[in-house]
Amino acid sequence: MSRIQQLAIIDGYTQVQFGRDAAPPSTDTPRIRLKEMEVSKLHATVYWDAAKKSWAVVDMGSKHGTFIRPRQIVAEPVKPTPNTGSNSSSHGTDLRGHRLSAPRMSSMPRVLRHLDELSLGNTTFIAHLHEDRLPCEACVSKGGDEIPLFYVSKAQRQEEALRKRKLEALDPPPPPPGDAKKSLNMLKRSMLSRHGNPVDRRSEETHAYVDRSAKRRALHPGTPDMVVAAARASISAPSSRPISPPPPEPTSAPPVPLASTNIGHRLLLKQGWMPGTALGQERSELDSGSTALVEPI
């Protein structure tokens, strides 16, 4: 399994904390966050001791402990603990070095020397303390390998990524050799950013008003008169289709007496009606000159 190496540069601070939880956004003390279950919420603190003029480390009462081992000395024999796991050998020697304190108890300050190894959980830090304050080849930053010392929100990370994309768009890195398509796209993008976008100018020209009627009159002077004359001729010319006569008006069928089998005829007979007489009129009213409808409708 390959080990990933990163840098924690703390030259500008007097102390730095180690823990599983992120530091509050309002704090001024940097914290190196280790997302491991063996690391406590606030595990240890490394600070600058002005009296001794040296860096020191203190365990803040962690459960699984903070271990320190000098680089030039073989690991010290310590009593095996149930939390050491695979880091303990069969002879009772912890490969991570000396534990600073018992579980859940704060330790006394321990001075850090150059190249001391500080282990918290599954992470090991190597202290680089140079008297001339100049980084060596092992602790110089190569860009993008630094551990963040303060809490960075998701919005801030997205803003930083957007800023990097904008910088890459303005000054993109050179494509790998042999990739002709990417080289052509990069050249096109750089030319458009320098001289403006010609596509926008073409779109503005296409949206400008063009009098097509004036162009047509200039190219074909007689066209409008011919079109108007043809239109007038088509309006005034009689239609060649034959005119069909209007349909005849519908006429009513002649009155026909009701048959004796008709249900209405039989109902009227039961009510006292006689064929040839008016319905609902007395004989005296008929003799007096009043008109009554005798024929069926």
Q: What is the rounded Rg?
A: 53 Å
What portion of the residues fall into strands of 2 or more residues? 5-15%
Q: Could you give a short account of the major beta sheet? A: 5 strands, mixed
- The CATH topology name of the domain at 1-151 reads Tumour Suppressor Smad4
SS element count, helices: 7
- Quickly give the CATH architecture of the domain at 1-151: Sandwich
Q: End-to-end span in angstroms?
A: 111 Å
SS content category: alpha+beta
Domain G-patch: 260-297
Biased composition (Low complexity): 228-242
Biased composition (Polar residues): 81-92
Protein name: G-patch domain-containing protein
What attributes does this structure have?
single chain; Tumour Suppressor Smad4; elongated; 297 residues; four-stranded antiparallel beta sheet; 26% helix; alpha+beta; five-stranded mixed beta sheet; 7 helices
Walk me through what this model shows.
This protein is α+β, with helices and mostly antiparallel strands and 297 residues long. Among the domains are: 1-151, Tumour Suppressor Smad4, CATH 2.60.200; 158-196, no CATH class. It contains 7 helices and 9 strands, in the order βββββββββααααααα. It has helices at residues 154-170, 180-195, 198-207, 212-219, 223-236, 263-270, 283-287; strands spanning 15-19, 31-33, 44-49, 54-59, 66-69, 98-99, 110-111, 117-120, 123-126. The strands form 2 sheets. A 5-stranded mixed sheet has the order 2-1-3-4-7, with no helix packed on it. Strands 6-5-8-9 form a 4-stranded antiparallel sheet, with no helix packed on it. A hairpin with a 2-residue loop joins strand 8 (117-120) and strand 9. The longest helix has 17 residues, at 154-170. The protein is elongated, with a radius of gyration of 53 Å. The termini are far apart.
